[in-house]
Amino acid sequence: MIFAGHYVSSMQPALTEANEGELREKERLLAEWLRVHRSVLIGFSGGVDSAYLACIAVEVLDTDSVLAVVGKSASYPEAQWAAARDVARAFNIPVLEVDTEELADARYTANPTNRCYFCKTELWSRLAPIAAARGLTYIVDGTNADDLSDYRPGARAAAEWGVLSPLATLGFTKADIRALSRQRGIPTWRQPSAPCLSSRIPYGTQVTSERLRRIEAAEKSLRDLGIAGDLRVRFHGDLARIELPPNEVAAWLSPEAAERLRASVVDSGFARVAVDLRGFRSGSLNVLGGIVADATPNETAA
Amino acid sequence: MTARSREGLERALRELGVHCAVEAFDALAVAVPEPGDRSLEREDVRRRALELARAHGFSHLAVELRKSEDLHPDRATLSGD
User: Residue ranges of the domains in chain A?
Assistant: First the structure.
């Protein structure tokens, strides 16, 4: 679905009479939760969830009681950082950028199935002293209720560092957050989800800065071709496997379109390019690595 | 759990009318089409190919995009003149 020139992911973002009351009540509870907790440092990615949380926080609390912190590294796409900056500027969210060094941790770069644990441990270990130094009582993140059923080893690190997840606690789903963000004019409501670039590399394959840069460049080149929805460039050595929005796969297989696609990805440093016939799947490499079962076995080739 | 078979998938795809070689990267199968084969542009063929990949033990099936000269050797010769 295209809305105002932007891709809208598979979500139901509009408030309806039926659910408006329920969402308003959730938002009221979130405001109350923030008032009770008084001051927060937000792990801020500029994505749908943390952007919404930060916008509510600055509305409810005074500016000195909120700080949104972005952990930057080679695994964090530059475009995402730009989006985070834009949201922060537009909604007067105090934001701080902190470099993180997960790529210096061999346990992370070995890319085990619990890689996210090491990344989040690095992130929260950097953010905790900042919260303490600024007198911010709680560290919070944008984890939502849907995330709780997903495979997320990073959640263990959050628990170890005492990070709270008010959106998940109060039962906000991704669809809730998109709907409420849309109503508030927060542009991230229609933003595709954007996990870190390391999620494009199969478990057990080394994560390196060079590989992350190559993946980022390839995805940017595909965006430049006009692909706006959920897409991933998955790393398989010299081969890039492209996961396109499922309803766009067919259009990119015609010879002329395929050549444009291939050339743009080759220019980013991959020798070979393949299109996944099923298209984008969240957690695709978890399925490929046998970490989780394929949740949608009745695929529809589009 | 289905035993993974690259050869079996390649054979099944050929029977479906998809003329390609198959390369395996663990549970990912990559179909490398022969020059001129455009069968995977058809939705019904893609749907069936995905079913065959699963039946042969692959969770993912991708099609390699070949350089246009590889697919159209005649055109490549002409454009190289």
Answer: 2-190, 197-288
Stated pTM of the model: 0.83
Task: Quick: pLDDT tens for A96-142.
Answer: 999 999 999 999 999 999 999 999 999 999 999 999 999 999 999 99
Between A and B, how many CB-CB pairs are < 8 A?
Answer: 78
Query: What architecture (CATH level 2) is domain A197-288?
Result: 2-Layer Sandwich (3.30)
Architecture of the CATH domain A2-190: 3-Layer(aba) Sandwich (3.40)
Q: Minimal Cα distance from B49: which residue of A?
A: A277
**pLDDT tens track for A259-287:** 999 999 999 999 999 999 999 987 777 77
Spell out which residues of chain A touch residue B54, defining contact as CB-CB under 8 Å.
297
Domain spanning B6-80: CATH 1.10.740: no
CA neighbours closer than 13 Å in the CB half-sphere of residue A37 = 22
Beta partners for B61? B29
* CB-based contact A130:A98 (threshold 8 Å): yes
Question: What ipTM was estimated for this complex?
Answer: 0.87
Instruction: Please indicate if any CB of chain A lies within 8 Å of the CB of B43.
Output: yes
On whether any CB of chain B is under 8 Å from the CB of A284, the answer is yes
Closest CA to A200 of A225, A230, A155, A157: A230
Per-residue model confidence (pLDDT) at position B1: 57
Give the Cβ contact number of residue A228 at 10 Å. Answer: 17
